[in-house]
Specification:
eleven-stranded mixed beta sheet; single chain; 5'-3' RNA exonuclease activity; three-stranded antiparallel beta sheet; Pol/histidinol_Pase-like; alpha+beta; TIM Barrel; 8 helices; 19 strands
C-alpha cells in the first residue's frame, strides 16, 4: 500500500544528532511528499534451507499480499548456485511442487519421474528477474548467519548481502555476536554494498540476554517481534520478554556505554507456507513499514538506519511527528478497532543496577537481570487514534507502542493483539 505521508514535520537538533527519525539534512520544517511507505519482511526461509516452499512461490505470496519488498534469509547459504532436490525429500513435498507447477508451468526444470522426480531450485537472480517490478516489488538477497556459542543459538540476518558470511564463532555470546557484526561491516566496507545486519529472536533458546546485546558495537537492529511460535517473544517467569529487553538495552547503551540507539524490527521468520493459517511459522505476522524515496535496497536500508520506519504486527500508522516539544502518533484506523497508544522510556538517573535471576537453589541463572520498573516505564497512555507526549527534559529516550483492541488473526503466541512499535528517539537533554 503506497500511501505518501508526512512522517516527521520538524527536525530538531537532538533528533539529527541521534540519527533517529531524521528525514533530511536541513532543520527547517518540511513534508515528505516525495517519499512513500514501503512494507517489507526481512526474515524468510525457503527450500534452500529449512523452509517448505520454493523461492518463486514465496515471492508470489508476498507480492500478492501487498508487500513491497522481501529479503530471503536462508541459513548459512545464498541461492547463487544450481541445486537439484528430490521433490519427495523436500520439506514441502508434493504439495509445494504441485503449487509451483500450477503457478509457474513455463519455467520448471525437472528430471526423472515418480519417486525419483527432481526439480532445480531457481537461483535468487533468476527469481528476482522474474518477480521484481520496478517501483512496485523488490526481492533482496540475504543470509541468516546461524552461529552458536556452546548450546546457545546465535542467529543474525544480513540484508542485501553480497557474499556469504561464514559463522564467525566467539569466546562467549557477546563475542560471537560482535564477530559476526564485524564480518558484515567489513564486507560492506570492502565491497561498497549497502548492507544491514540484525540480531534475530534473542529469546530463541533464551540464548541472548540484554547484557550480551547492549554493548555490541555496530549493531543497530534486533527483532522485537518474531512470528515464529517457538521464539518466546513474551519470555517466561525467569526470562524477560523481548520488549523489556529492548528497554534495558536502550537505557544502558545511552547511559553507560555511549552507544547509539537500537531499533526494533517485526518479522515473519517464515518457514511454513501451506495450509494457512496454522500454528507453525507462517508469513504475514510481522513486518516493517519504511519511509523512503526509492524502492531500492540501499535506499531502504539507509532509511532504516536513520530510524525512518516502524515495526508492525497489524497496526498501521498515518504519521509520527517529532519536534523539540514532543512526539505525536496518529493511527490509520481500521473499522471496529480501538487503539491504546503508550509512550515508553527511561529517565536520566534511573538506577540501572540489575539483580541476577536465581534458580530454585538460589544460584544465578543465565538470563537477563532484573531491573527497576523505571527502566522502560510507561510515561503516558492514551486511548484513541491520536496521542501526543510532551518531553519533560529528563528522558534518555522515548519510544511508542500502539495496541489494537483486535486480536492478531494468526498469532504466533496465544492472546497476541495487533500492534505497532515506533522507534526510539533521544530525549532532548541527551547528546
Amino acid at each position: 500500500m503506497k500511501t505518501t505521508l508526512a512522517f516527521v514535520l520538524f527536525l530538531p537538533r537532538f533528533l539529527l544528532a541521534s540519527a533517529s527519525l531524521a528525514f533530511a539534512a536541513e532543520s527547517e520544517p518540511r513534508a515528505d511528499h516525495d517519499r512513500q511507505w514501503r512494507r517489507g519482511n526481512v526474515h524468510t526461509h525457503s527450500h534452500w534451507s529449512d523452509g517448505d516452499d520454493y523461492l518463486e512461490s514465496i515471492a508470489a505470496w508476498y507480492r500478492e499480499h501487498e508487500y513491497d519488498f522481501l529479503v530471503f534469509t536462508d541459513h548459512n547459504v545464498l541461492a547463487d548456485k544450481d541445486r537439484w532436490v528430490r521433490v519427495d525429500k523436500t520439506k514441502g513435498g508434493r504439495e509445494a511442487y504441485d503449487k509451483l507447477k500450477a503457478q509457474f508451468p513455463d519455467w520448471i526444470d525437472e528430471r526423472g519421474d515418480g519417486d525419483a522426480l527432481e526439480v532445480r531450485l531457481r537461483r535468487f537472480d533468476e527469481v528476482a528477474k522474474r518477480m521484481n517490478q520496478a517501483g512496485e516489488f523488490l526481492l533482496i538477497p540475504g543470509e541468516e548467519i546461524s552461529d552458536a556459542f556452546e548450546r546457545a543459538p546465535i542467529h543474525m540476518n544480513v540484508s542485501n548481502v553480497k557474499e556469504r558470511i561464514e559463522p564467525q564463532h566467539g569466546r562467549d555470546v557477546f563475542d560471537t555476536i560482535q564477530r559476526n557484526v564485524r564480518a558484515a561491516q567489513e564486507q560492506r566496507e570492502r565491497t561498497g554494498q549497502t548492507m544491514m545486519i540484525h540480531l534475530n529472536h534473542p529469546n530463541f533458546g533464551y540464548a541472548v540476554t540484554a547484557e550480551d546485546l547492549m554493548r555490541v558495537q555496530g549493531e543497530r537492529f534486533f527483532e522485537v517481534f518474531n512470528g515464529h511460535p517457538g521464539v518466546h517473544n513474551h519470555g517466561d517467569h525467569t526470562h524477560a520478554g523481548v520488549e523489556q529487553i529492548w528497554d534495558i538495552i536502550l537505557a544502558h547503551r545511552l547511559a553507560v556505554f555511549d552507544l547509539p540507539l537500537m531499533y526494533g524490527l517485526a518479522v515473519d521468520d517464515g518457514h511454513s507456507y501451506h495450509g494457512l493459517p496454522n500454528r507453525q511459522s507462517n508469513p504475514g505476522r510481522g513486518w516493517v513499514m519504511v519511509l523512503c524515496d526509492k524502492l531500492e535496497a540501499g535506499s531502504l536500508i539507509e532509511s532504516m538506519e536513520r530510524g525512518d520506519f516502524y515495526a508492525s504486527s497489524g497496526v498501521r500508522l498515518e504519521s509520527v511527528a517529532c519536534d523539540d516539544a514532543g512526539m505525536t502518533i496518529t493511527v490509520a484506523p481500521e473499522p471496529g478497532e480501538n487503539y491504546t497508544i503508550e509512550f515508553i522510556g527511561t529517565r536520566q538517573g534511573t538506577d540501572l543496577t540489575g539483580q541476577p535471576v536465581l534458580d530454585d537453589r538460589g544460584e544465578p541463572l543465565r538470563a537477563t537481570r532484573i531491573y527497576s520498573d523505571k527502566v522502560g516505564e510507561v510515561l503516558a497512555k492514551s486511548i484513541g487514534e491520536q496521542a501526543s507526549y510532551a518531553f519533560q527534559g529528563d528522558e534518555l529516550y522515548v519510544r511508542a507502542r500502539v495496541t489494537s483492541s483486535q486480536k492478531h488473526p494468526n498469532p504466533s503466541e496465544e492472546g497476541d493483539f495487533k500492534q505497532a512499535w515506533v522507534q526510539p528517539v533521544l530525549g532532548p537533554g541527551v547528546e
